User: What shape does this take?
Amino acid sequence: MQRCFTRWAAAAAWVALATGCACEAGDTEPRATGEPVLAPAVTAVVPAAPAEEGPRFTAAGELLPPKDYRTWMYVTSGFAMGYGPLAQQAAEGGVQVFDTVFVERPAYERFVATGVWPESTMFVLELRTAEGHGSIVTNGKFQTDLLGLEAAVKDSTRFAGGWGYFELPSDATGPTGPAPVLPTTAACYECHAKNGAVEQTFTQFYPTLFAVARAKGTVRADFVGMPPTRTDLFEKVVAEGWPAGERLLADAATRWPGAGALREATLNQVGYQLLQADEQPEALGMLEYVTRRFPGSANAWDSLSEVQEQAGQGAAALASVAEGLRALDGDTTVQPRQREALSRSLSDRKARLVPG
Ligand code: HEC
Assistant: This one.
C-alpha cells in the first residue's frame, strides 16, 4: 500500500489517482479505497514523493508524529539502561526494557562527514518490553511491545538551548499524535546536557558514531570519557607500543575496574591478536601483564610461556611453565577438560625446553 503525505497535498490527488490511495487534508495514514486502480498510464509521470525529512510541527508548534521512524538510520540499542522516565517507570514495575535509537538519515550522513549534529536533526528513542522466553530463547532477551517513544530535535530557532525534548503519544502500533515540547524543567534537559558526549546526545553509546566524533574532535571537552574497548587497546599498543597500552590499562583499572577490557580473557585475546599482527615484543608485554594481574591463572602462564618459547626465550619460558603448573595445582575452579589440556600443554613445553 502507498503512503499519503499531507504536506504534498498538491501531489496527493495524483498519487490517489495513480495508486488507489485516498488522501484527504489531515490524513497521515493511507486508506485503501477498495477501488480498482484506474489509470496505470499516469503512474509513469507521477513525481516520486521525496523521503520524509526533518521534523514537522503543527501551527501551534507541536511536533508531528514521525510515523516512519523505524525506516530511519538505526544507531544503537541499550538494554535495561532505564534512565529516561518511561524506562524508569517500567523498571519500578519489574519490567526490563530495550531502548533503540533512530536518527533521520540526512542528519546521520552529515554527522558521519562532520562529527556534528546539523540543525533539524531528529532522534527517536523507542522503548520496548524485553521478553526472555519464547521459541528457542531461554537465556537471552528479545523485544516485544512498544512501551513508549521519546524524541529530541535540534533547532536553535525554536529551542533556547538548541535542543527540544518530547514524549510522543503512542499506542501499540506507533506514535498517534503531535507532542508539545517538554518544558526545560523536565529531567531530560539536565541529564542530557550534563552527560551526553556530543552536545546533548548520548553519542558515547553509539558504537560506530562515537568513533566518528572522536576522530573529528567533536566530543565535549568536559566529557568524562569511556573505558577503552578491546579494539582501542589493540590499536593503542600497535601505534604507540606496549608501555602506552599498560598506561591505558592502569588508568582504566582506576576509573572503571569492572570494564570488559580488563577481563583476563579479553587481555589474553589482545595478546594473541598482537602476535598475529607480527608484534611479538608487544604481545609479550601484554601477556606478562596478564600474569601479573592474574598470577593464579594457569592459562595466563601457559600463554606467556608459549610466546616466550616462540621468541627463543627458553629460560623465561621454563620459569613460566613452572608457575603455570604451580597455578594449576592450586586452582580448583578449572574444569576437568581444560585442566587436562593445560597440563598437557605445559608439560609438553617443559619437555621440549629442559636441556638435554
Ligand atoms: C537520567 C538521564 C536521562 C534522562 C532524565 C533522560 N534521558 Fe534520554 N537518554 C539517556 C541515555 C543514557 C540515553 C542513551 C540510550 C542508549 O544509548 O541506548 C538517552 C537517549 C535519548 C534519546 C536518543 C538521542 C540521544 O540523545 O542520545 C532521546 C531522543 C531521548 N533520550 C529522549 C529523552 C526524553 C524526551 C527525556 C525526558 C522525557 C529523556 N530522554 C530523559 C538518559 C536520560
